[in-house]
Specification:
Rossmann fold; AB_hydrolase_fold; 3-oxoadipate enol-lactonase; binds the ligand O=C(O)CC1=CCC(=O)O1; 8-stranded mixed β-sheet; alpha/beta; 3-oxoadipate enol-lactonase activity; AB_hydrolase_sf; 43% helix
Length: 264
């Protein structure tokens, strides 16, 4: 675990795996922190140098007040990679982390060797939906939304059979800084990459859980269709966060893809 100040924001990050191995960075979704990748890191860190971090507003990183923009998150990621002298990397992003990954691919194609987009889209939700979520959180706290969020993240069977884990991940959300959550909702509200991602030329793997209620299969497929060099895979018995619900299936898709992309 380590900390660095990037763009005036204190960021918490973790590095695992052999320093000379091919580098991967894992980028989080709204309301989650680097811990959602723990099982993925355990499975992959024998072969890859893996960077995970808490994006601004989340985990142990700073949560400044006000609206965030997708570009803030991209600048933070670029600054963190520069600080760590990681010049060539595969970016794996889930949900808003996948939007950050797409925007990073458009801004820094020369620094990217492969892209993995999990349960994400070129446009997630709409202005009304994000504004009402921001208002609900500001007026009534994140607790007022916690059960709905869990139902969107996890399959019914996970919620029924893995109650302690569910309670633990719900605690993560409940402990989120309000400013971080609302600020990132604003970034999601304002981000629309539908008109630009056709310019992504990096080899891309797109994955989605078959029961994802936040970014459903057809929405994610639409993003994959806009990226020429992309492969689309559906993970069974999985909701919005495959690194928690189906880490083995996710890791086998990622490792096979990275090897083919020459990043393994
Ligand atoms: O609906 C949710 O909370 C899930 C989600 C949407 C965008 C994101 O990053 O997470």
């Amino acid at each position: 675990m380590a900390f660095v100040r990037i763009n005036g924001i204190l960021l918490h990050y973790r590095l695992a795996g052999p320093p000379a191995a091919p580098a991967i960075v894992l980028v989080n979704s709204l309301g989650t922190d680097a811990r959602i990748w723990d099982q993925v890191v355990a499975l992959m860190s024998g072969y890859y140098r893996i960077l995970s971090y808490d994006k601004r507003g989340h985990g142990l990183s700073d949560a400044p007040p006000g609206d965030y923009a997708l570009e803030h998150h991209v600048d933070d990621l670029a600054g963190l990679l520069q600080h760590l002298d990681i010049n060539h990397v595969a970016v794996v992003g889930v949900s808003v982390g996948g939007l950050i990954a797409q925007a990073f691919a458009l801004r820094h194609p020369d620094r990217l060797s492969a892209l993995v987009l999990c349960d994400t889209a070129a446009k997630v939700g709409d202005e009304t939906m994000w504004n009402s979520r921001i208002a609900a959180v500001r007026e009534n706290g994140i607790g007022s939304l916690a059960e709905t969020i869990m139902a969107r993240w996890f399959t019914e069977s996970f919620r029924r059979d893995r109650r302690e884990e569910l309670a633990g991940w719900q605690n993560m959300v409940l402990r989120m800084p309000l400013d971080g959550y609302a600020g990132t909702c604003a970034a999601l509200r304002d981000a629309d990459l539908r008109g630009s991602i056709a310019a992504i030329t990096t080899p891309t793997l797109v994955v989605v859980g078959d029961q994802d209620l936040s970014t459903p299969v057809e929405l994610v497929r639409d993003m994959a269709n806009r990226i020429a060099d992309s492969r689309f895979e559906i993970i069974g018995d999985c909701g919005h966060i495959p690194s928690i619900e189906q880490p083995h299936a996710l890791v086998s898709l990622i490792t096979a893809f990275l090897e083919e992309a020459g990043h393994g």
